[in-house]
Design brief:
Layout lengths: L11 E2 L7 E3 L12 E8 L3 E5 L7 E6 L3 E6 L2 E2 L5 E2 L13 E5 L4 H4 L1 E7 L5 E9 L2 E5 L5 E6 L13 E4 L2 E6 L21 E5 L28 E4 L4 E9 L2 E8 L5 E8 H4 L9 E2 L2 E2 L23 E4 L6 E6 L12 E5 L4 E6 L6 E9 L9 E6 L5 E5 L3 E7 L1
Antiparallel strand pairs: 1-2, 2-23, 3-30, 4-5, 5-6, 6-7, 6-8, 9-10, 10-11, 11-12, 11-13, 14-15, 15-16, 16-17, 18-19, 19-20, 20-23, 21-22, 24-25, 25-26, 26-27, 28-29, 29-30
């Protein structure tokens, strides 16, 4: 395992017995640790994303996979959804549907918000909508505008990513490799493909160029071979990502869902995430990916230099799909502030870790698991409201506020 970055991210086996986690970290000290719990605040239909728009901290906007955005205000659902895309969205496959929702900093002034969904034809679509002036609970008629549409790769139409987030005025878009299994077309490493990437755009129209969005001049491949929209690449299915500050340094975390063996969490300085290659499909976690029959023309040459390596990896003996990496900022969560929270789609097991440079430290159970059915939890994600309160939500419908036990 040679390479420029391998020295920094060399893994060590975690001390915690019974959980196959690999990470470069010191083992937590012995003794009782504080624990988190949860209270159920609402039920939705397969929620996929939630958050509060700037200026409205007590409203929680919730995206549902079938295509609706509903508003929870002071613990009660408003009667009418803000948006219903049911006729446009394909949600038969569990990895399709309305997947992402994000608000720019100027939402209170403009009413603009953005969604990511899988269209009926299987393409991934990012679109802009607007609320009425001074009323964030009502949609402005005729305001829909498609920003970006990425063609599906094959009939499966999965690995769509779908998470959206703003950092400043720029919109970041998670896009999966689009192919299961094994990324046979090698989309994640192909810089002429938008699949298997984190994209970064300015979602405002560019009248001069006649395009629906603008390219930030600081994007890593502007003026170089590769699509100008690409911010980072080499990802399989980056289902969730986030930005945060740690010790005064801007950071980014990306939870990338694995193929056959490993799940990984990448936590690194934001400046290093720009233009980074996270290694898929050459690597799954820390190990070379053997695509076997999935690569009928043989495997591509294995890239081992210039890669960013994950800080935390766990095997499929302990889960099936990593979710989260969200920073904990709720003042009421005390010692957990500044840590990141993550979990697993299948097991519902939730953990927190300290993302201190140069590596993750003190990875430990959060103290709770989400309710399950037949042993499967289907944790769909985490989110925060405008008061920095932290939530977890399940494919089964439960929305839970995370509290200190």
């Amino acid at each position: 395992m040679s390479g420029a970055r391998r020295r920094r991210w060399a893994p060590a086996v975690a001390c915690m017995a019974g959980l196959a986690i690999l990470f470069a970290a010191a083992c937590p000290s012995a003794g009782a640790a504080p624990k988190l719990g949860y209270v159920k605040v609402a039920s939705a239909r397969q929620p996929t994303s939630l958050g509060s728009p700037p200026g409205y901290p007590r409203m929680l906007f919730v995206a549902e996979r079938a295509g609706k955005i509903r508003i929870l205000r002071r613990g009660r659902w408003l009667k009418n959804p803000l948006l219903s895309l049911n006729r446009k969205v394909s949600s038969r496959n569990i990895e399709r549907g309305l997947l992402g929702l994000a608000f720019p900093p100027d939402f209170r002034k403009t009413g603009r918000f953005y969604v990511d969904y899988t269209a009926r034809n299987g393409n991934s679509v990012v679109a802009e909508y607007r609320t009425g002036r001074g009323d964030p609970t009502r949609l402005r008629p005729g305001s829909g505008r498609v920003i970006l549409e990425i063609p599906r790769v094959n009939g499966n139409g999965n690995h769509n990513g779908g998470h959206l987030a703003f950092r400043g005025n720029l919109l970041y878009i998670a896009v999966g490799d689009g192919f299961d299994p094994g990324d046979a077309p090698d989309n994640a490493q192909n810089l002429e493909s938008l699949r298997g990437k984190i994209l970064r755009i300015d979602p405002r129209p560019d009248p001069g160029a006649g395009t629906a969005y603008r390219i930030p001049p600081g994007n890593p491949f502007v003026g170089r071979p590769g699509r100008d929209e690409i911010f980072a690449y080499g990802l399989r299915n980056p289902f969730t990502f986030s930005f945060f500050d740690s010790g005064g340094q801007a950071m980014m975390s990306i939870a990338d869902v694995g193929q056959l063996r490993y799940e990984e969490l990448n936590v690194l300085p934001f400046t290093e995430a720009r233009g980074a290659n996270f290694g898929w499909k050459g690597f799954e976690g820390f190990e070379p990916f053997n695509c076997g029959e999935l690569c009928p023309n043989g495997a591509d040459p294995l890239v081992t230099t210039g890669l960013e390596w994950p800080q935390l990896v766990y095997s499929h003996e302990d889960g099936c799909a990593i979710i989260g990496g969200l920073p904990i900022n709720d003042p009421k969560l005390g010692a957990f502030r500044g840590r990141v929270i993550y979990g697993d789609f299948c097991t519902g097991r939730v953990r927190t870790a300290a993302p201190r440079l140069p590596t993750i430290v003190d990875d430990r159970p959060a103290g709770f698991s989400l309710p399950s059915r037949h042993g499967v939890a289907l944790l769909n994600g985490f989110g925060t409201d405008g008061l920095k309160r932290l939530y977890a939500f399940s494919h089964y419908g439960g929305i839970y506020r995370i509290i200190r036990r």
